[in-house]
Design goal:
- By secondary structure, this protein is α+β, with helices and mostly antiparallel strands.
- The protein has 2 domains: about 5-65 and about 130-280, Jelly Rolls, CATH 2.60.120; about 295-345, no CATH class.
- It is about 20% helix and about 30% strand.
Length: about 350
């Protein structure tokens, strides 16, 4: 599906950007680095909850001679110096398709991908969160082209309210094959912040976005839109509210390394809580769950909110006595994120808040 990226005049206000829809085109607001003032980005984001800023020079080039371009050597160094930080919230989007890797734990796969001077042949796709360690965060951010994109730290009417969580998501993978390497199935995230910005540091990542019914109610111009295909290349920054957009990602074929880093943002001035994204973003299996087995009961996790997906691996069942349980709809492998079926409203083209 081809998309039309709505370009804005350098002096235009993003809130006045017109969204065009037609059977052959799909809209998304795109800004160049020159157009991406703080006010423009925040106004565009308020309208659509997704903005693509193309080719930030800060992100695609190193700012000092001593600083190496971010890549696998940086991730290996982080794994060597802070192994518990890397493995605490390590997730395998796609496991290597050979050997015993399919049944390996997250920590074993992390060691396999980052513990040696040379990564195993692909395809593989993984992620982890740098959090709950000031030393690890300081070292990691020092190697990044920026802690915060220029358009969110520059002066503007809303710049002073923008805050970020003290954590960084790292997504990396390689795909030597011709076919694209898929990430998680389409889903939304149960989040409380305003959204996340993703900077592509190396290679390419392809996003597919589709508005939820809640987002369509907020912006009627998005009715009938999606799925949108958005290609992020080195230097691009995608800001997206993953609660209001159904989303999935993939690494295109013949991509030696796709590396991106993300941070959660609070645009209303809310003070971020202490991060623990293993619990906030979702839960993943640490062992095999056979089809039909109980993953956990309502009594064990009464406040748990799982993301919804059209290709979910779990369902909610009545186990008697009025009690509910999350049950595996199919065999769930270690490292897979738990997700539940989309609501009837969402299946019919609507959407709602995860519960």
């Amino acid at each position: 599906v081809e998309i039309v990226l709505q370009r804005m005049a350098p002096r235009a206000q993003a809130s006045h950007a017109k969204i065009r829809t037609s059977p052959k085109s799909r809209p998304v607001i795109q800004l160049s680095e020159e157009e991406a003032t703080t006010d423009n980005v925040l106004a565009a984001y308020k309208d659509c909850q997704a903005v693509l800023v193309k080719a930030s020079r800060d992100a695609s080039t190193s700012t000092t001679k001593k600083r190496a371009a971010p890549g696998l050597p940086l991730l290996r160094c982080l794994h060597r110096r802070f192994p518990k930080v890397v493995t605490r919230a390590f997730h395998v989007e796609q496991l290597p398709a050979h050997g015993a890797a399919k049944s390996a734990s997250a920590s074993e796969v992390a060691a396999r991908l980052l513990g040696k001077a040379r990564a195993p042949p692909g395809p593989w796709y993984a992620s982890f969160v740098v959090q709950r360690s000031r030393a690890a965060l300081a070292e990691f951010f020092d190697a990044m082209p920026f802690r915060v994109p220029p358009f969110l730290r520059a002066r503007g009417s809303g710049a002073g309210k923008v805050k970020h969580s003290e954590a960084a998501w790292v997504f990396f993978g390689t795909n030597p094959r011709h076919a694209a390497l898929q990430g998680r199935a389409e889903h939304t995230d149960a989040i409380e912040h305003s959204g996340t910005w993703h900077v592509q540091l190396q290679g390419v990542k392809v996003w597919y976005l589709r508005p939820t019914a809640e987002l369509i109610r907020q912006n009627r111009a998005l009715r009938g839109v999606g799925p949108m295909r958005i290609v992020c290349r080195a230097g691009d920054v995608l800001c997206v509210n993953t609660r209001l957009w159904w989303h999935r990602t993939q690494i295109p074929g013949k991509c030696p390394l796709s590396l991106s880093v993300a941070r959660d943002m609070y645009l209303d001035g809310t003070t971020p809580c202490k991060p623990d994204f293993t619990n906030v973003r979702g839960h993943y299996a640490t062992r095999v769950f056979p089809k039909g087995s109980v993953v956990f009961t309502e009594d064990e996790a009464p406040e748990l909110a799982l993301p919804r997906s059209g290709d979910s691996n779990c369902g909610v069942r009545d186990v008697g006595g009025g009690a509910l349980a999350v049950v595996a709809k199919r065999r769930i492998r270690p490292g897979e994120w738990f997700s539940v079926s989309a609501s009837e409203d969402e299946d019919a083209g609507g959407g709602g808040k995860n519960r």
